[in-house]
């Protein structure tokens, strides 16, 4: 996420699908009257407004590293600030922290989780959600293409899985003295349109590739990747495409 450019409009193309894990996460956070609620990695802010509606008496703090996303969030009335989550620390009155589909972009984020949790006041809630699809065809096919002679050295996608397994997050939070609830869900999204899986990953995992290439190179890269994704995720007779997407969730309450 750090140093990567973002396109809020492209990201929101699949907003219904991207938002569902956020609501599933939020449903397990039991705070009733928090003083301060923080959205770390608020993106275009459409979900930050949900936090304000759930806890109208709370101060809602929003942070994102993308100027484009911060601008989009402010356009929705969110008091978003530009900043790096790696430098963030909770204020003394922070009772809820939510980070949704962000930490996969932050190397070494498990150390951050321990630091954040131990800095929160007693009774505070922390909720996180990250994609767990690093080994799915949508990602492996993109990585394989970047390793072919034409693209090797020009673009790169990391081989190492950027997120931990659910049990590792459970152990981390429990080791910090928190009550913890960890689970995973594989959503089977029904997508429509031409090359919908390519469109999905263009808004997320392929952003570093887009930043590394000029317009012609970006078009060529997508043209090579598209037929491979069509084979892995074939369009059905009714014109829809099924896209399984694994997500990992953790909710911790500070002891």
From TrEMBL:
Single GO BP term: methylation
Keywords carried by this UniProt record: Cytoplasm, Methyltransferase, S-adenosyl-L-methionine, Transferase
Record-linked Pfam families: Methyltransf_23
GO molecular function, one term: trans-aconitate 2-methyltransferase activity
InterPro entries per record: SAM-dependent_MTases_sf, Trans-aconitate_MeTrfase, Trans_acon_MeTrfase_C
EC number assigned by the record: 2.1.1.144
Domain of life: Bacteria
Compartments (UniProt record): Cytoplasm
Transmembrane parts of this sequence: none
Catalytic activity entry: trans-aconitate + S-adenosyl-L-methionine = (E)-3-(methoxycarbonyl)pent-2-enedioate + S-adenosyl-L-homocysteine
Family: Belongs to the methyltransferase superfamily. Tam family.
Function: Catalyzes the S-adenosylmethionine monomethyl esterification of trans-aconitate.
PANTHER family attached to this UniProt entry: TRANS-ACONITATE 2-METHYLTRANSFERASE, TRANS-ACONITATE 2-METHYLTRANSFERASE-RELATED
Protein's name according to its UniProt entry: Trans-aconitate 2-methyltransferase
Organism the protein comes from: Pseudonocardia hispaniensis
């Amino acid at each position: 996420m750090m140093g990567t450019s973002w396109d809020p409009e492209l990201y929101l193309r699949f907003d219904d699908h991207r938002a569902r894990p956020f609501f599933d996460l939020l449903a397990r956070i039991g705070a009733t009257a928090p003083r301060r609620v923080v959205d770390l990695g608020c993106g275009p802010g459409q979900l930050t407004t949900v936090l304000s509606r759930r806890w109208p008496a709370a101060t809602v703090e929003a942070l994102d590293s993308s100027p484009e996303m911060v601008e989009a969030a402010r356009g929705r009335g969110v008091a978003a600030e530009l900043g790096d989550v790696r430098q963030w620390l909770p204020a003394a009155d922070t009772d809820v922290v939510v980070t949704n589909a962000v930490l996969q972009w932050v190397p070494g984020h498990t150390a951050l989780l321990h630091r954040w949790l131990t800095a929160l006041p007693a009774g505070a809630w922390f909720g996180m959600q990250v994609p767990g699809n690093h080994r799915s065809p949508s990602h492996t096919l993109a990585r394989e293409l970047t390793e072919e002679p034409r693209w090797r050295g020009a673009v790169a996608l990391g081989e190492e899985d950027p997120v931990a397994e659910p049990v590792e997050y459970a152990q981390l939070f429990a080791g910090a003295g928190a009550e913890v609830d960890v689970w995973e869900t594989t959503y089977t999204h029904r997508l429509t349109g031409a090359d919908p899986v390519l469109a999905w990953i263009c808004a997320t995992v392929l952003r570093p590739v887009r930043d590394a290439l000029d317009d012609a190179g970006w078009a060529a890269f997508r043209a090579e990747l598209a037929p491979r994704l069509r084979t892995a995720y074939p369009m059905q007779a009714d014109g829809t495409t099924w896209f399984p997407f694994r997500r990992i969730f953790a909710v911790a309450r500070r002891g």
